[in-house]
Amino acid sequence: MTPVDATAGLVRPRDDIALMAGYHSPQLDVAVRLNTNESPLPPPAAFADAVAAATRSVVWNRYPDRQAAELRSRIAARHGVAPDQVFAANGSNEVLQCLLLAYGGPGRSAVVFEPTYALHSHLARVTGTAVVEGERGEDFTLDPDAAEALMDSARPAVTFLCSPNNPSGTVEPRSVVASLLDTAASTSGLLCVDEAYAEFAPHSALDFVDDETPLAVTRTYSKTWAMAGARLGYLVGPAWLVAELEKVALPYHLDALKQAVGITALEFVDDMQARVGAIVAERTRLADRLGGLPVDVWPSGANFVLMRPRGRDGADVWKQLVDRSVLVRNCSSWPRLDGCLRVTVGTRQEDDRFLAALEEILA
Ligand SMILES: *Cc1c(COP(=O)(O)O)cnc(C)c1O
User: Fold this and answer.
1) Distance 25 CA to ligand 1 centre (A)
2) Residue with CA nearest ligand 1 atom 3
3) What domains lie within the chain, and their CATH numbers?
4) Which of 137, 142, 194, 282 is positioned for an S-S bond with 162, CB 3.0–4.6 A?
């Protein structure tokens, strides 16, 4: 076979896709992995047993329940909303993609407040939605007046607010969420609050959700539920919005086993909450210890902490951590995050290993 020059493809992709870089989260084979905000512990053993039992009742030869009715009604019950106010998909990333397929697209725009989760602008571009970038302050908080002015002028179809924000950990005050929501409503746009880390934070935007409010709150099983491997996420929002998302999702997008797994997990809420409590306590310990080192640390309401080694090259510190078999997220070359590293809260042992390595490097 003649080798194919991939750059000279005979079939051209869309021009905007051809110019795009894909989303990457580099993985390395190291002893301590604190780079993707996963749970350091697997779900409880009883969960694995319950999943095994649930597997036996899966009807493999039939298509799954397209509406995922039971899963949605269990999630709805957990949040005190109606099942038709819940839309579930393969990870909250697919939820966000469906939101943009239905509400974004050519001639429409999405507002993001940088620095924030890269998938919001990436998925906007993939769906042909123009991206309008707002700025967070030096301390990564949002200026509600500036945000309102931007939304008033851009009139975006969707405004993304990530709270707690990835990668800074910043939790938006409820008053700011309320003010963005008013602006979204008055400019005929939607506010999407990405709450991938909400369980680690002091408050949520969920109680602003009702059928009269253009608000969608997204959640994921990936972080809190220690189930990044399962790919399951959901949105809570008005029933009219959920109805539109159902039109753009692929038929039977949630397989039968995943629906069963998602239902089963909800029987372990107490275990999950205990783990979240332990991670929040460990986050406080980690942040306190970092406070004693020559690094800047930002307050976090998530299961990670953003930090910047003072007077040092962030990429070099990252590399030296890798040399000591500790992997954190290297944000040092990302716009507005000059020199920053993001570290996921791990087990006490993992965090101690990270701290010991960092101390050695910064000594
Ligand atoms: C990790 C993360 C997600 C999770 O995406 P899934 O597709 O549910 O795994 C969503 N939003 C943010 C901000 C995240 O950091």
Assistant:
1) 12
2) 196
3) 15-43+270-362 (3.90.1150.10), 63-267 (3.40.640.10)
4) 194
Mention every residue, 6+ apart, whose C-beta is less than 8 A from residue 156.
108, 109, 110, 111, 132, 187, 189
Whether the model clears a pTM of 0.85, i.e. scores above it, the answer is yes
162 CA → ligand 1 middle, Å: 10
Among the listed residues 112, 116, 117, the one whose alpha carbon sits nearest the alpha carbon of residue 133: 112
Q: Could you count the other beta carbons within 10 Å of the beta carbon of residue 113?
A: 26
Check: CB of residue 279 under 8 Å from CB of residue 303. yes
Number of C-beta neighbours around residue 236 at 10 A: 27
* pLDDT score of 231: 96
**Which are the contacts of 78, defined by CB distance < 8 A and separation ≥ 6?**
266, 269
Residues 60-106: pLDDT tens digits?
A: 999 999 999 999 999 999 999 999 999 999 999 999 999 999 999 99
**Residues 162, 195, 180, 213: is their CA dihedral positive or negative?**
positive
Question: Closest residue (by CA) to atom 10 of ligand 1?
Answer: 196
Residue 4: pLDDT over 70: no
Average pLDDT over all residues of the chain? 95
- Nearest CA residue ID for atom 12, ligand 1: 196
User: What is the residue with the minimal CA distance to atom 15 of ligand 1?
Assistant: 166
9 CA from centroid of ligand 1 (Å): 32
Across 289-309, average pLDDT: 97
The angle formed by the CA atoms of residues 349, 232 and 253, to the nearest 5 degrees, is: 155
Over its C-alpha atoms, the chain yields an Rg (Å, rounded) of 21
